[in-house]
Amino acid sequence: MKHRTAAELDPVDLYAVRSMLSESERLMQNSVAAFVDHQVIPIIAECFEHEHFPRELIGTMAELGLLGCSLRGYGCAGLNGVSYGLICQELERGDSGLRSFVSVQSSLCMYPIHAFGSEAQRKRWLPPMARGEVIGCFGLTEPHGGSDPANMKTYARRQGQDWILNGSKMWITNGAIADVAIVWARTDGGIRGFLVEKDFKGFRTSLVKHKMSLRTSVTSGLFFDNVIVPEENVLGVVGLKGPLSCLTQARFGICWGVIGAAQACLAQVIDYSKTRSLFGKPLAATQSVQIRLAEMSRKITTSQLLALQLGRLYDSDRMEPTQVSMAKWHNTRAAIEVARDARDLLGGAGVSIEYVPIRHALNLESVITYEGTETIHQLTVGRALTGLSAF
Fold first, then answer.
1. Residues in domain Acyl-CoA dehydrogenase/oxidase C-terminal (predicted)?
2. Segment 3-30, tens digit of pLDDT
């Protein structure tokens, strides 16, 4: 058996997960990693500080085929699930806000149009969305309770051949910059999805400011005051299965994305601990620091293996929502713990955005909450294990 030295192991890929990828998957990861290294990381700290979403990066992301990348046809790249996961991982290594933008555009907006839309809707919306010329947002969460979507108050009623939409949505990524909103509302016949265009009369948005998390992401409220939506803008799905299937797609990307945030934190704190000297030796030469770094590596490695197997299940059409819940719960919890501990190991430097852990830790406070809180995912797994619902 060959014994490899520690120097030969990749500190952020200790189990050589990259070696388990296909050549096309590695090439996709490499191209997005280069984009993040050269165009995202140099500007993202300043964007975070000033609550700025870097719209100038959308064109490049579209050129790389990142928008709607797992969809087939209509100008989409048709990549497999593992490639989509790796894209999310590299984007979130840069910043959760950037991965959130791609997740919303791809999984929450383009996916439902592709899966539930008419052919006319697909032809109208998907090609320009893949090119980054049309931005979408996903309106499900409401101010009074995001974890119980069946309790939504937004309502649409028939009026001739049209629908009249009233209500509001909150904490909506991309809302204020979106050209079209995928809005879920109650109707007399069940929950339906509506394509609400930004210039529809009675539709307005507000920008959520003063956030301490996802500051590079546009977060908004959506408000509908007797908005007339034509029948041609209604998706062909009824019930919660529509929005919940979209959330499954987005959660899949999150399971991968948070690994990138954790890897960025570990890589930086390893470098710092080797150069920071206290009491006559580097921090990295102390037992307590090595134990903490090893814990971070264990959490990242476990998350990588969970995500890879989840991706293989996805690509063989065997993935179940409960498996996504397990990975979203585990990987997000692991990532936020890595980010917090990395921030602590940096000492006073850890509170500066010149170092990445504080930014990732703050962002992950949102990621662990949205697309299903940690508790919701724990209860989802518990329900699968027992056959009994505790919701």
1. 240-385
2. 555 558 999 999 999 999 999 999 999 9
